[in-house]
Amino acid sequence: MFRFRALPLLLLLLALPALAKPPRLTLFITVDALGSDLLLRTRPRLKGGLRQLTDSGAFYPYARYDYAKPRTAPGHATLATGANPWRHGIVDNRIIDRATGKPERVFPDPTHPVLEAPLSQEDVSPATLMAETVADKLRLATHEQGKVIALSGKARSAIPLAGRLGQAYWYDETVGKFVTGTWYTKELPGWLKTFNAANPPEAWFSKTWEPLLPRTEYVGEDDRTYEGEFYGLGRTFPHPLTGGLTSPGPQAYSAFAISPLSLDFVVKAARAAVEGEGLGKDEVPDMLAVSFSATDRVFHQYGPTSWEMQDTLYRLDKAVGDLVALAERAAGGRANLLVVLTADHGGAAVPEQWAASGVAAERVNPAALSKGLTEALRKQFGGDITATIEELDVYLGGKTLEGGKVDGVAVRRAAATWLTKQPSVTLAVARDDLYTVPDVAGLVMPLRRGYFPERSGDVLFVVKPFHVISTESVGTNHGTPYAYDQLVPLILAGRGVKPGTYTREISTTDVAPTVAAALEIGLPASAEGEPRYEALGNGR
Q: What's one Pfam family here (predicted)?
């Protein structure tokens, strides 16, 4: 006769609802350009929400992007899908149209224009995203009853976080307000109209960006010759937000977007979304995805060790605390909330700063490389052949090549050979050889993971360590397969999370699967990573 033990079974049944109940609200925070080294260096001086998450959550200091070119659009796409660009198709912020030789955005969609902003060729929809996102999976798992709202200072950040089935809203620098595209809705929701009306661009036009803390709290010098002065901000505090204009306009809207004062603006927009959409108010799980963009803009213009970046991190610390508190209230407490915080890429120091410290660092101008390569190919093959470099990708074009008058394979291999001989380049591979060439120093595999045939270049290359690709003579950049660009933090907190510091290196493709596991839904279809079970309290 079959017998069962009543007490153990009863205890198991009592435990099942708790195990099977996902958090009401998931707060998915991405910080643009928050590399591991930047956070670890600043952490001892932080006192707000960012510090609290690292201290009390599951903290992974070393999550690595596995592909060669960590950039904003592919980074957010990888975080959202759990896949590398070879699967999700988003290889960079921009790609080159071979027919025209001109750059174009990676999320364009002429059939779904932006609402309440001038027509443009900017990012507007997820039509080019080739993989399912964790947001899509949540929507499908809840029969589209669970809501997903993504907010960012950049369209290319909000769009992949929202996926195809969520709602994405972003700050448009041409009009100075939050907008969206017709992919998502035919009219801005009432809560966003109210928010835009209550926060007109004139509200911050007369303000200045002042240091948040006493000047004695900042390390180094405020004025450095290799910092940028774009949009009239200047190199030293205080920074005016007028954009050099006498009345509000696009230049001023961009100056505000660069400044960390925009961090609070994003938090206010998140509050309006939470209240307007009723996020976290019932047992159906919702997701609020927020990407802070000011950190990246400050990084590019001033560098990661500048006073401006230090101040931005102090302000981010407060903004994260405000955002988490907002989400806790919406979900009815931390027990109903899952918090995820990570970044889309890290970033290099200003190369001149590295060089001054004795590091073999250089600024590499892609325009000069393009010109030299074009001249070499024309000399070798004759006719009209052009080379256009976008970060680590070389796009080849011209009538001679397109008309079949020369062997395309030979031209691509000749271009790779020429690049390899340049002092700043450590490796170059024609697309024809990408999957057969030996993996020199482990750099070919990252190129493969970042390659998507329809959008990537004809030749891929890697610069030497501490060499920064930049069209500007000041500031800095990111997008190489080195630790300072690839490594970012991952922090989990809230429902079902086992706190601790986990120093093993993980992949950023693990983020989406981990969120899906915490929500107890299936993994995104193209995910390559795996759930970080050791950080989930009931994981085995």
A: Phosphodiest
10-62 pLDDT tens trace: 343 344 344 458 999 999 999 999 999 999 999 999 999 999 999 999 999 99
pTM of the entire predicted model:
0.95
Encode pLDDT of 402-459 as tens digits: 889 999 999 999 999 999 999 999 999 999 999 999 998 999 999 999 999 999 999 9
* Pairing, β 487-494 against β 337-343: antiparallel
Residue among 367, 485, 457 nearest 67 (CA): 485
The C-alpha atoms of residue 127 and residue 115 are separated, in whole angstroms, by 17
Q: 């990537």: which residue's tokens?
A: 456
Q: Is 370 in contact with 388 (CB distance < 8 Å)? A: yes
Would you call the peptide bond into 238 cis, given omega within 30 degrees of 0 as the criterion? yes
Contact 443, 463 (CB under 8 A): no
For tokens 């609290």, what's the residue? 52
What are the φ and ψ backbone dihedral angles of 441, each rounded to 5 degrees?
55, 25
Distance CA 359, CA 491 (A): 32
Q: How distant, in Å, are the alpha carbons of 149, 164, 264, 488, 504 from that of 292?
A: 14, 21, 10, 15, 26
In this structure, what token pair is assigned to residue 234? 């200047």
Q: How far apart (Å, rounded) are the C-alpha atoms in residues 229 and 189?
A: 37
Distance (Å, rounded) from C-alpha 9 to C-alpha 290?
42
